[in-house]
Amino acid sequence: MSRHLLVGMWLALAAGTALAQVDSPTTEQFKYQAEIRGSIRRHAVCRIPLPLELLSRSESNLTDLRLFDADGREIPFVVRFSRLQPKTTEAPLTITGYEQSRGGVQLVVTVPEAMGAVNGIELTIPERDFRKQVTVMANNAAGPVIGQDTIYDFSSYVDLRRTRVDFPATDARVLVLRITDSETMPENRDTVQVTATGLEIIFSRSWAKQLRIDTVLGRSVQAEPGGPRIDRWLLRPVPTAQNASRQTVIHVPVRLPAGRILFDVATPVFYRAVTVESSLDGRDGSWQPFASGTICAFPLGGQPERRLQLDLPGTGIARYRIAIENGDSPPLEIRSLSFESPTREIFFVADDARQPYRLMVGARSVRAPNYDIERFGDSDAWADQARNQVTMGAVTGNPDYDPQAGTSRRAQVERTVLIAVILVLVVGLGYWLFVLLRKDGVGTPSGDKPDA
What are the pLDDT digits (tens) for 271-288? Predict the structure, then answer.
């Protein structure tokens, strides 16, 4: 009997769980929608980018994203990232010539024939604390100048190093690199001092040293055809506040995908630590440490060198709170913030030609979908099949939205399961008491034996 009761309890729980799991969402559960129209035909693969306006309205990191056809049937889909950067090829360049003079050194490098047009080089330099001017000529030393840049390293003082030289793409197979000191240092001058409010940086004269160049790496970037690869969102003016810890605090007012933050700062010289916290809904007590780094600007030879970006890890969608450590320095004059993230695209196989299809978000009680097509291919494979032109309209409120939709059936299932479990427990408890009393007596509930 006890075995039957135990089996009954497990069956009741399993049945309730199954009923709750197969409860498919309906269009009435979603707050927002965007209509999809275009060359939609049955069994055609369709592709369309997801705008930030739609992503920011997701309440659960896109687990509440659903697609419905014109008849309200749920349509399976996949979401893939477009490439953030164009295709980049890197290869070592062969150093075929070296010449040293009083003003600097000159390198001759050869580009491999298999490599496409080169638009940048990276120098491998083991030394620290230097600043050099690099001029790049095509074909020979008398050839046209195709690029000029500054390489530097101040890592003994701050985390600031650059050994990359960028220039317009060239098909030349021979490049001449002329590396010279950025400026002539007087013999009686030991240091250069840059002073700003609350900041003092001293660089030694060791930047005029000779450098050892181990390798020269060439880079070829090929732009890919297609739509936008990066989504951008601008915050201007920036809502800043100063707290008791002398921090500048910025609350980003909308949910955004993780990616990169770009700071537009008017302050000419600064070096500040930045921390970023994230939260799904922005409520007090829900903020978690998310990323940290530094932003800075230094005047080098009259041309400011800046590091004004901070990368955010992961691919989630959240609200962000930014804190900038000011110390005893005045707050930065921040003109704007730009947020960049990889473009997300949705791919789906149309089930019917009737339009419009409706892409919907904003339902807290909806679990993440589990579609079989999610297991098929990466973004390139899907893009090769998506040849139908479709467009997405503006994100609007869902006219069919019902705040109670989706909760009544779940509540009914949960109530049914609870009643079933309680009944099973009551019956089981009664049976257990009956067995317990029979062990202590024969035939009477009190356990007294009848007279012989």
Answer: 999 999 999 888 888 999
Q: In the structure encoding, which two tokens stand for residue 280, read together?
A: 């799904």
Q: What angle do CA 48, 52, 55 make, to 5 degrees?
A: 85
Cα distance between residue 362 and residue 29, in whole Å: 8
CA distance 14 to 339: 46
Checking if the pLDDT of 154 tops 90, the result is no
The rounded distance, in Å, linking the Cα atoms of 277 and 318 is: 10
Q: Is the peptide bond before 237 cis (omega within 30 degrees of 0)?
A: yes
The answer to whether residue 380 scores a pLDDT higher than 60 is: yes
Look up tokens 């150093």; give the residue.
Answer: 95
| Secondary structure (DSSP) of 106-143 | EEEEE--TTS--EEEEEEE----SEEEEEEEEESSTTS
Beta bridge partners of 364: none
Beta strand 247-251 with 240-242 is antiparallel
User: What pLDDT is stored for residue 406 in this prediction?
Assistant: 64
Q: What is the pLDDT of residue 1?
A: 47
Say if CB 353 and CB 40 are below 8 A apart: yes
* Three-class secondary structure of residue 327 per DSSP: coil
52-85 burial string, b = 16+ CB within 10 Å, else e?
bebbbbbbbbbebbbbbbeeeebbebbebebeee
Q: What is the CA radius of gyration of the chain?
A: 33
Token digits for 286? 């829900």
Rounded to two decimals, what is the model's pTM? 0.61
The single residue listed with the structure tokens 């000029």 is 148
Query: 269 near 71, Cβ under 8 Å?
Result: no
- Print the SS3 string covering 409-432: HHHHHHHHHHHHHHHHHHHHHHHH
Give bridge partners of residue 262 from the DSSP assignment: 309, 338
pLDDT over 50 at 14, yes or no: no
